[in-house]
Specification:
The complex is a heterodimer. By secondary structure, chain A is mostly helical. In chain A, 78% of the residues lie in helices and 0% in strands. Chain A has two domains: 2-64, no CATH class; 73-239, MetI-like (MetI-like fold, Orthogonal Bundle). Chain A is built from 13 helices and no strands. Chain A is flat, with a radius of gyration of 24 Å. Chain B contains 15 helices and ten strands. Chain B has two domains: 25-129 and 280-331, 3-Layer(aba) Sandwich (D-Maltodextrin-Binding Protein, domain 2); 131-279 and 350-402, Periplasmic binding protein-like II (D-Maltodextrin-Binding Protein, domain 2, 3-Layer(aba) Sandwich), CATH 3.40.190.10. The longest helix of chain B has 19 residues, at 384-402. In chain B, strand 1, helix 2 (37-47) and strand 2 (54-58) form a beta-alpha-beta unit. Classes of the chains: A mainly alpha, B alpha/beta. At the A-B interface, helix 2, helix 4, helix 6, helix 10 and helix 11 of A face helix 1, helix 2, strand 2, helix 3 and helix 9 of B.
Chain lengths: 278, 420
């Protein structure tokens, strides 16, 4: 009797563990399996890419990758992508974080409307905006510069930066700041000494978001840059019509830098989700 | 505060390093052709090697047109030479293109006339040509209907052939480029309609057209249903999803170049009114905003040189438009496609069509109409007569609005081509 009674919860706990493990495995597979196939096909010869069933062990044929190594302009395009994404990151936080702070700390007329309007910048499709933007950029000399493109990407990223930082600031009680004021801080020093350290991980996360938005954007990049193309504009348009093995290799090349970047800053991402620096 | 300073520093450094490198005296070749990475690479390394400093940039149609329009509107730009299909140019205002008389010439009077875009001067120079052909895996050959000559197939024989394969293997192995980026509309405009109705526009809703669409349904019944995802049939030929395929020569080239011994190329089938087929013409042009007109014209002239044309053939599988002796050591895809096209145009029942001309900006809508007709009749199973009658009015509107006269194989017209 007593053994049965203790077995029951033990079994449920065991079953719960299985479900938990299965869920974890499923989620990991969800992300890893496509990436793994991308890797295998990148390292396969064209014949192997077109054959079925697929082998699970790559044959380390570097033909597809070495094609891209000799592809003129790849490295410049990679450098441009990083510069544009970096600028986008910096500018969207520089503009978005103060806006988020203002939205969470101050009451002003039209605040709700303002929050709505911010989202509206995403309501217009880029192919529609690209023509007038390109005309203006050509006239002002911003055309074909990383800075000009970063401006466009910043407008795409700012709504998210504002909304993410708004919720971050709202999560920090104003009492903390008030306490700092009573202890001799000015508004600015209270912000930099008390609030900023608390939300820095969150800010980093929204910066990563801006980075990814810029990294993935093709249309504006293809229209607004020519000599200084970003990697996505440079490669993505040409990949959809390329043979399968080059599609895989090109996709791999596009994914890897973004993966490395996210891996490098992963602890800040986890921090936003409440798992402290692990 | 130091944070702010360092941000400023990084920004400034990035801006400076980004704007450095620019401002070279290259001619920018802004193209919608030779887009696949391998072709782009060959264009840069082989075709344009002797043309001076040329920056070859292939693009999707959207960014290509948007950038071009932006430069035209701004009144200054960096694009030196445009490379695109006849349809892309005919959608433009001829005034935005520099007259190119005397710079170069193709050997075909028909092409040269098309390149005037309805004006008195050459608006673009025909650059290269291609067509659509059939290809089959050698595995499919044993199933050919009795007495059928692969170089003189009819649509009925094609359907029977694909049916034999379906019966024997249990799988439909005809591949049709009905995917989102597939060129299916060209099959209807240049192959199915001319072969069954001896027209494209006039005969759009004729009784013969009803027969044509009935045949299309029969063909679809033995077509790999995944064809709605196929856009480049070379992939399906290589992986075995398709044993017989119809597509653009350059979209079949990969299969022939990779496994030349496994595939055969042959002419498109014939219907009651002949063996309809259609050329593809790409041209080079110069926008009025080109920064260095002389350098641009030099690049255009370079593209039409016989040796450049041969290099282009190797790079893109598009054939020369000037008279030039083809050497014997061409890639397998070029040899296969070349002989199939020659057989097609040389066949006794050949019924060559022309590219839609004079539609201007409505060219996309025109093609869309044929695609929708296919989707409703063949994929949606709607009544053929009803769909054709409904689309007939839209087609007439397109013709009236653009004022386009009939083109071959339709009989010539005074004024806009009538839909009968």
């Amino acid at each position: 009797m007593s053994t049965a009674a203790t077995d029951m919860p033990g079994n449920t706990r065991k079953a719960g563990r299985y479900v938990y493990i299965a869920a974890v495995v499923l989620l990991c597979a969800w992300v890893i399996v496509p990436l793994y196939f991308l890797l295998i096909n990148t390292l396969s010869s064209p014949e192997a890419v077109n054959s079925f069933p697929k082998s699970f062990i790559p044959e380390f044929d570097l033909g597809s990758l070495s094609f891209f190594a000799n592809f003129a302009g790849m490295l410049t395009a990679l450098k441009n992508s990083i510069i544009v994404a970096g600028l986008t990151m910096i500018m969207s936080i520089a503009i978005g974080a103060p806006a988020g702070y203002a939205l969470s700390r101050f009451d002003f007329p039209g605040k709700e409307l303002f929050r709505m309007l911010i989202l509206l910048t995403r309501a217009f499709p880029l192919p529609l905006l690209a023509l007038p933007l390109a005309v203006m950029f050509i006239r002002t000399g911003l055309d074909d510069t990383a800075f000009g493109l970063a401006l466009v990407h910043t407008t795409l990223a700012v709504p998210f930066a504002v909304l993410i930082t708004f919720s971050l600031f709202s999560g920090i009680p104003i009492e903390l700041e008030e306490a700092a004021w009573t202890l001799g801080c000015t508004r600015l020093t209270a912000f930099t000494k008390v609030v900023l350290p608390l939300i820095l991980p969150g800010i980093t996360a929204s910066a990563i978001f801006a980075f990814v938005i810029s990294w993935n954007e093709v249309f504006a990049a293809a229209v607004l840059t020519i000599e200084n193309r970003t990697l996505t504009a440079f490669l993505l348009q040409n990949l959809d019509t390329s043979p399968l093995h080059l599609k895989f290799a090109g996709g791999f090349i596009l994914v890897v830098p973004a993966l490395i970047f996210i891996f490098a800053v992963r602890k800040y991402l986890f921090a936003m989700w409440g798992i402290a620096n692990r | 505060m130091s944070l702010k300073k360092s941000i400023l520093k990084i920004t400034a450094a990035a801006v400076v390093s980004a704007t450095a490198g620019a401002a070279t005296a290259e001619v920018l070749f802004w193209s919608t052709q030779a887009k696949p990475v391998e072709e782009a690479q060959a264009m840069r390394e082989q075709v344009l090697a002797g043309a001076g400093d040329v920056d070859y940039q292939p693009n999707d149609g959207g960014p290509w047109l948007t950038r071009l329009n932006a430069e035209l509107q701004a009144g200054s730009g960096s694009i030196g030479v445009l490379g695109a299909l006849h349809g892309d140019f005919s959608a433009m205002d001829p005034a935005d293109l520099v007259d190119l008389d005397g710079v170069a010439m193709s050997a075909s009077d028909t092409f040269n006339e098309l390149a005037k875009l309805g004006t008195d001067n050459m608006q673009y120079i025909p650059w290269m040509q291609a067509s659509y052909i059939m290809a089959a895996s050698k595995k499919a050959l044993p199933y050919l209907p009795e007495g059928a000559d692969i170089d003189a197939l009819t649509y009925d024989q094609l359907i029977e052939w694909a049916g034999n394969i379906k019966e024997a293997t249990g799988e439909a192995k005809f591949g049709f480029p009905a995917g989102p980026k597939g060129l299916k509309h060209r099959f209807f405009q240049g192959y199915l309609y001319p072969s069954y109705t001896d027209g494209v526009v006039r005969t759009f809703a004729s009784d013969a057209a009803v027969t044509a669409w009935e045949k299309m349904r029969e063909l679809w019944a033995v077509t790999n249903p995944a064809s709605t995802n196929f856009s480049f049939l070379q992939e399906q030929l290589l992986n075995g999803d398709a044993w017989i395929a119809f597509d653009h020569t350059s979209r079949l080239a990969g299969a022939f170049n990779e496994r030349p011994d496994d595939f055969v190329a042959f002419p498109a089938p014939a219907g009651p009114t002949g063996r309809g087929f259609m050329p593809v013409i790409a041209g080079v042009a110069i926008p009025r905003t080109a920064p260095d007109m002389e350098a641009s014209k030099a690049v255009v002239a370079h593209m039409l040189k016989p040796e450049t044309q041969l290099a282009t053939l190797r790079a893109t599988n598009f054939f020369p438009v000037v008279d030039v002796e083809l050497p014997g050591d061409l890639p397998p895809a070029v040899q296969a496609a070349g002989s199939a096209v020659a057989k097609m145009s040389g066949s006794a029942d050949a019924n060559p069509g022309l590219l839609p001309a004079g539609l201007g900006a409505l060219g996309g809508e025109f093609s869309q109409l044929y695609t929708e007709t296919f989707e409703r009749i063949v994929l949606g199973g709607q009544d053929i007569r009803m769909v054709l009658d409904q689309h007939k009015e839209r087609l007439q509107d397109i013709m009236n609005e653009s004022g386009a006269p009939c083109w071959a194989p339709d009989a010539a017209s005074d004024g806009p081509c009538p839909v009968e």
